[in-house]
Amino acid sequence: MSKRIGIGLVGFGFIGKVHTLAYRSIPLYFDPCPVEPVLVGVCTSRPETAQKAVRTGGFEFGCNALEELLQRDDIDVIDVCTPNQMHKEQVIAALEAGKHVYCDKPLTVTLADAMEIDAAARSKPELHHGMAFHCRFIPAVMRAKRMIDAGFLGRVYHFRATYYHAGYTDPGRPISWRLSKEAGGGALSDLGSHIIDAMMHLLGGFSRVRASMETYIPERPVSKGSAETVPVEVDDYVCIEAELAQGGRGLIEASRFATGTQDGFGFEIYGEKGSLRFDMMDANYLYAYDDTVPGDELGGMRGYTQIECVQRYPAPSALPSPKLPVGWVRFHIQSIYDFLSALAEGRCGSATLFDGIRVQTVDDAVRRSAGDGRWADVNTPA
């Protein structure tokens, strides 16, 4: 029988709606499905938004205080979908209340906050936790991980990885929490957290980084159409040179000013035996070059191979057909399913709070390096 898992969701903005859709979809996407997610409660900042979330998401009740979710015996998991600066307090409160936790990225704004979560999570080893690093669950990335682990690349020489958006190029876009140093963290936190995690997932940890940051529009309106402006406190673009702990180097860029780009997550990895490349806007395929294939004076059969990945997820994935094109929401569905199925089976999922903490150590090193332009060691916790 499927294991019932009661969900308490904190925050019902864009990502809260995405997570809600994922929970509602899981029983349809997996057959047999080892879990039965039940949307018990949702917590928002105001009574009217809580009641709207109940109606929209199909929750049993809504509230405006996290404590109301924590004291419910029928809620097993707290899903944190709030702005970044609220994560630490909410994640720790959930763990201390004996709840499993699933948290949106980035884990926190600062490394100090992340280490407080580290201590709280280690003090509760019986609890399960997961991070919304959904880029791990793109079929092409899953295929790349399997190939790399099997030795397809051999020694890694270097890589290039990017996450580009263009949503902040309009100087009239008003200020928001995402443009606050205290709450948002800029392109590094918003987009860089994904690409840093993806590269460490594929290639292992970083030993040190050297970075620079840019803010292209230093002030923004306080509201749409307002003549009053306030300073922008965060980066619009970050460029990171990284050394891999296992050898090799790479370049990582995250930008919210990549004019004309939609969801530009991608990477190129070059090794002694071959190379891999991927582009989110061509998400159904992974491209692989096998340098061990013999050639002749005209090249023979050497060249990049287009590997069809589409929606080829491991069983018990049942809907839709694995041959159909994949989409962005599907990655979130698989990420949440990975966490819930691991919880049901008493094992660790693929991405945990500890992975969020490791990303935060890189974030911290990048900020230290950007301050003086020097290499900064990545102080990865044991």
Give a brief rundown of this model:
The longest helix is centred in the last third of the chain and has 20 residues, at 353-372.
Question: Would you mind describing this structure in some detail?
Answer:
The chain is α/β, with parallel strands linked by helices and 382 residues long. The protein is built from 9 helices and 17 strands. The strands form 3 sheets. Strands 16-15-14-13-7-12-11-8-17 form a 9-stranded mixed sheet. A 6-stranded parallel sheet has the order 3-2-1-4-5-6, with helices on both faces. The longest helix has 20 residues, at 353-372. The chain is globular and about 70 Å long. The mean pLDDT is 93.
Which SSEs are present, and which pair or pack?
Elements (H helix, E strand, L loop, with lengths): L2 E8 L3 H16 L5 E9 L3 H11 L3 E3 L2 H5 L6 E4 L6 H10 L3 E4 L7 H12 L6 E3 L7 H11 L6 E9 L21 H18 L2 E9 L4 E3 L7 E3 L5 E8 L4 E7 L8 E8 L2 E6 L5 E6 L13 E5 L19 H18 L7 H20 L3 E2 L5
Parallel strand pairs: 1-2, 1-4, 2-3, 4-5, 5-6, 7-12
Antiparallel strand pairs: 7-13, 8-11, 8-17, 9-10, 11-12, 13-14, 14-15, 15-16
